[in-house]
Structure formats: C-alpha cells, structure tokens
Design goal:
This protein is an alpha+beta fold and 235 residues long. It has 5 helices and 9 strands; from the N terminus they run αβααββββββααββ. The chain folds into 2 domains: 91 residues; 121 residues, Alpha-Beta Plaits. The strands form 2 sheets. Strands 1, 2, 3, 7, 8 and 9 form a 6-stranded antiparallel sheet that branches. β2 and β3 form a beta hairpin. α3 runs antiparallel to α5. Pfam families: DUF881 (PF05949). InterPro entries: DUF881. It comes from Peribacillus deserti.
Length: 235
C-alpha cells in the first residue's frame, strides 16, 4: 500500500514537473523570439541609417559639384566677356598696340628751305589721302604725332591751322606710325604711291623707314562717341 502511494506520489511529481517544464518553456519562448526580433529590427534600422547617411553624403557631393560647375561656367562667361571687350577696345583703338610697322616722316624739302620758299602747313586733305592709301594697302593701326587714328578721327583746318581731333599739326616734322601684318608690302606700295608726289608739290618730303620690329602705336586718348548708341534706360 505504501509502495503504491509512493509510486503514485512519484508519478504525480513527474507529471507536475513536466507541466512546469512545459509552462516554463512556453513562457520563455516568446521572450527569446522578442529578443531575436529586436536585434533584427536594430540591425535593419542601423542599415537604413547607414544608407541614409550615404545618400546624404552623395547629395552633398553632387551639390558641391553643381556649385563648382556653376562657378566655372560663370567664370568662363566672365573670361569670354573680358576677352571680347578687350578685342573690341583693341579694334576701336583704345589700347596700345605693338607690332611690325613703318615710320613715315613728313617735313619741308631741304631745297625749298635753301631757296627761301614758303613752307605751308600740311594740307588736311592731303593727309587724309595718305591715310586712305595706307588703309588700302592693309594698314591696321595708325597714329599721327602720337594721336591714334580711329573711325571717328577728324582731320580738318580750324582758323587756318590743320588739326587732328583738335590737336595742332602746324609744326614739322610730322610723324606717322603704321602697323601692318604685311609691312614689307605696305612699305613697297606706299613708296611708289602718287600721293607722295602730291607732298612734293607742296614742298614737303616724305621719308618711309625700313620695317621696324616692335613698333608701338599709342591708344586713342579722347572719348569715343557714337551718334546712334545711347545708354539703355532702367525699366
């Protein structure tokens, strides 16, 4: 009888133990699952944060590149504008120019001075003819007594005195500097030009120098005015 009770008690203990073990396992299992899901969630969040950080870095790099390209484009436009402005100033005679050229010296004939003949001031019309001849033979830059000749240059007689843009040309010698990309051809043609004979008739000699390297023509000193251009008004 006692053995039966003992075995019964043992059996009950085993059953209770198994139930407790099952219950303990049942209680513990969700915690393990939750812990595993939490780590997976943390890992996923960390991966997303790393991806977001990478994307932000790439965005900053692209923005920096775009800013750099914009700066370069702006600088390129500014450089092109300055270059164009420089070319326009050069073509309009507002800058000093150095190149191959010749020097033409106009002065009274020595024979006329010895004979006591009257030496008149240079004729504005004759001087303009000389400039036209030089331009016809591909002169690129011209100055007369240090005054640059441009499209708006005025050579005329004022109160009996020849002037170029208001500067007097009454004293001799008169020096004409001429630059050309084909200076030898220019020199050869101007030496046999008929305009030289016209100076001789006026008791003036015209000496044409040999080609000169690095001859400088000064810039135009006066303000260049345009008859048809006006500053744009503010809108």
């Amino acid at each position: 009888m006692k053995k039966d009770i003992k075995w019964g008690f043992t059996g009950i203990s085993i059953i209770v133990g198994l139930m407790l073990a099952i219950q303990f396992q049942t209680v513990k299992q969700p915690k393990i699952a939750d812990t595993r899901d939490g780590w997976e969630l943390r890992t996923q969040i960390l991966a997303e944060q790393q991806l977001q950080s990478k994307l932000l870095t790439e965005i900053r790099e692209l923005e920096a590149q775009a800013s750099s390209y914009e700066t370069q484009r702006s600088q390129s436009k500014e450089t092109a504008l300055k270059q164009t402005l420089g070319e326009l100033k050069r073509e309009s005679g507002q800058t000093k120019v150095t190149g191959d050229g010749i020097i033409i010296t106009i002065k009274p004939l020595a024979e006329a001075e010895l004979l006591g003949e009257t030496i008149h001031s240079i004729s504005p019309e004759l001087l303009k003819r000389l400039i036209n001849e030089l331009n016809m033979y591909h002169a690129e830059h011209i100055s007369i007594n240090g005054q640059r000749v441009v499209n708006t240059t005025v050579i005329r007689e004022i109160n009996g005195e020849p002037k170029i843009d208001g500067l007097p040309l009454s004293n001799y010698p008169i020096t004409v500097r001429v630059l050309s990309s084909d200076v030898q051809n220019l020199r050869d043609r101007i030496k046999v030009s008929k305009v030289i004979e016209q100076f001789f008739i006026d008791n003036l000699s015209v000496e044409v120098s040999d080609p000169v390297k690095k001859l400088t023509v000064p810039p135009y000193q006066n303000a260049i005015k345009s008859k048809y251009l006006e500053p744009a008004g503010k809108e």
